[in-house]
């Protein structure tokens, strides 16, 4: 394999709930859920049954034909969110590519080719394709792979004056994350998001929200924008949607529903029946009000316990998407030591990042927190 990942020296072979097991039989409490993917934890019984049942019936067909499980998922997503149309794909980067193409085609058809640029935020992360790297507002990613896709500028987060300075007659959309995950678990301020929404409406600029990491109940609502009192024109979803199999989705309002027509976008594997069956099982669980309340309660508990740990100076985030700042600014070192002691945990910039399975138990949380306390205290 190409050396594209900074892997920890662990090989995992099985798991259940929030506990993973390696080749030596050693167990780990997992505060990562595969970077927010295993929303129901490892090998959830209902999820396994849904995937197995679909795999035994029909594993794949071309998108030249209809699939009942695919159309059921599209309908469920639209019903749960109030959006009009969805494009199903395989990942967050693909969903974001769809959003970018959708925004540009809508604006070019309405205003002409000169109106196709998109404003994103500094410190953002939207994917690793050439175009989503260009959309990512971190200079460290803008190397080696020249030429990058043109037409992106980067405003400061939570700063409307900076957004206004980036918007001009060529702007067709503003594309943001509500919590910058890879950027250090930085939430957007509610007032900023609401002002941005109004600003975009007044100028017929599309507001697009990247919910790849924040979506699927991760922050305590089905999608994070629902807690900000806004309705974006477009939002994207992936990661936790499939509960462990690759799937992405780009949803849009009725106004944009017919913009991308036959042959203008597509994918071989997008809307794969197995992935759709998995997503339907996930949504049948995580969209329930009682489940959402539990996510909020667990997130509040984790946050309060993290704040009590000596050596952690601040904690930020929402629901079960949390970042912990360390007094010694040694997040990568702590994450490596946690693995040695039986805890899987992420980093983002100089923060520890926690994305546990939404189904993690109190006992599993306590075990993981105790390992973290001990490691930081060493």
Report on the structure:
This protein has 378 residues and is α/β, with parallel strands linked by helices. It is globular and about 60 Å long. It has helices spanning 33-36, 45-57, 68-81, 92-111, 130-135, 160-166, 190-203, 273-286, 289-308, 331-341, 362-377, and strands spanning 12-16, 19-22, 27-30, 85-89, 117-121, 152-155, 171-177, 179-180, 186-187, 206-210, 234-237, 248-252, 312-318, 321-326, 343-344, 346-348, 351-354.
Key descriptive features of the protein:
single chain; 378 residues; alpha/beta; seven-stranded mixed sheet; four-stranded mixed sheet; 20% strand
First and last CA, distance: 35 Å
Please give the oligomerization state of what you see.
single chain
Which sheet architecture does the biggest sheet show?
7 strands, mixed
The backbone outline, from C-alpha atoms, is: globular
Q: Which percent band covers the strand fraction?
A: 15-25%
Elements, N to C (H/E): EEEHHHEHEHEHEEEHEEEHHEEHEEEH
Helix content: 25-40%
Number of helices in the DSSP assignment? 11
Radius of gyration equals 20 Å
Residue stretches low in confidence (pLDDT < 50, at least 5 long) are none
The helix-and-strand class reads alpha/beta
Give the averaged pLDDT, no decimals. Answer: 98
Main-sheet strand order equals: 4-12-11-10-7-5-6
Quantity of strands, as a count:
17
How are the SSEs placed, and which strands pair?
Blueprint: E1 12-16, E2 19-22, E3 27-30, H1 33-36, H2 45-57, H3 68-81, E4 85-89, H4 92-111, E5 117-121, H5 130-135, E6 152-155, H6 160-166, E7 171-177, E8 179-180, E9 186-187, H7 190-203, E10 206-210, E11 234-237, E12 248-252, H8 273-286, H9 289-308, E13 312-318, E14 321-326, H10 331-341, E15 343-344, E16 346-348, E17 351-354, H11 362-377
Parallel strand pairs: 3-15, 5-6, 5-7, 7-10, 10-11
Antiparallel strand pairs: 1-2, 2-3, 4-12, 8-9, 11-12, 13-14, 14-17, 16-17
Helix pairs in contact: 2-8, 3-8, 10-11
